[in-house]
Hints:
It is a single chain. By secondary structure, the protein is mostly beta strands. The chain is about 0% helix and about 55% strand. The chain has strands at about 5, 10-15, 20-25, 30-40, 45-50, 60, 70-75, 80-85, 90-100, 110, 115-119. The strands form two sheets. Strands 2, 4, 5, 6, 9, 10 and 11 form a seven-stranded mixed sheet that branches. Strands 1-3-8-7 form a four-stranded antiparallel sheet, with no helix packed on it. A hairpin with a 6-residue loop joins strand 5 (about 45-50) and strand 6 (about 60). The model has no long low-confidence stretch (mean pLDDT about 95).
Amino acid sequence: QVQLVESGGGLVQTGGSLRLSCKVSGGTFSSYAIGWFRQAPGKEREFVVSITRFGGVTSYADSVKGRFTISRDSAKNTVYLQMGSLKPEDTAVYYCAARTVGSSDYAYWGQGMQVTVSS
C-alpha cells in the first residue's frame, strides 16, 4: 500500500518561504510521478506543480511559476516543494499525490496539511 506523508506546513508571513515535504513509502519511488495540489476554503482543489518519476520534467501552475520549485530525492523517497514569495492567496490545504506510469490519474494521496500566509 502506497502512503504519502506531507510535512513542513504552517504559518508564514507574506513574502516568506516554506518547504513542504512529501515522503513516499510502500512502493517503488521511481514508479511514481508526484504532484502537489491545494484547496483553499470555499474553492475547488487545484493543481500546483508536478514532477515526473525521474525528475526530468516539471509542470507549474501559472499562479506559482517563478515562486515555487519542486524537486525529488530518490535516496530519501521524498519530494520537496520549495515555496517562496508567498502571498495570502497561497493559503490552502496542500496535498501531495502519486501517479503511476501510464496513468493520468493520481491514485494515491496524502492527508493534506495547512499552509497559511498572513498579510
